[in-house]
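Predict both folds.
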Amino acid sequence: QLQVVESGGGLVQPGGSLRLSCAASGFTLDQYAIGWFRQAPGKETEGVSCTNNRNGNTHYADSLKGRFTISRDTAKNAVYLQMNSLKPEDTAIYYCAPSCHDYAGDYWGQGTEVTVSS
């Protein structure tokens, strides 16, 4: 069973940074492409970023390029999402999944909440 656990969210002021973590339970993250998604109140699920396990390619939502960085730590079996220059519109619950296409949330964990506010 593929289970992930997201962590690292919190309250941050505009312009601040956070690093989210995605940890795996029962499988090795390196075997899968890993995607980050987010849900903001009243909005549809948005794909944030994805890292391909086969070729190392990374992808970002156009609005996030230059601010967010996805990375893997094989030794820790974790994937990170470094978020810089945060804006109030980044406020959402962030989820990771062993898929770049899991918009339905079939493999999401409990999520980690990010609030960007002054």
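Second protein follows, with its predicted structure tokens after the sequence.
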Amino acid sequence: VQLVESGGGLVQAGGSLRLSCAASGSTFSINNMGWYRQAPGKERELVALITNGAGSTNYADSVKGRFTISRDNAKNTMYLQMNSLKPEDTAVYYCNALVQNYYWVWGQGTQVTVSS
């Protein structure tokens, strides 16, 4: 399984971006998927998770009510809709996938910069 993120960029505070994570390879073996982010000098942190099947979601407190995670299994793509962006959302955003309930795969990351 390979993951490729896109959709990052520069946006003003209060603006919106939608990130995409396209999966390829043995996509039938993907279970849960998620978005993480890492700001300069900080550890990577969970942003949102979505399960396979029922599509249950979970969010970090810092993004609840502003971000929405979703996935389109027919397109093998996961999304992160980010609204009301804040400067503290600036980070490199990574998608990841649990494969065969056994190992994790990461994308290369996409930069999101929110200016004040």
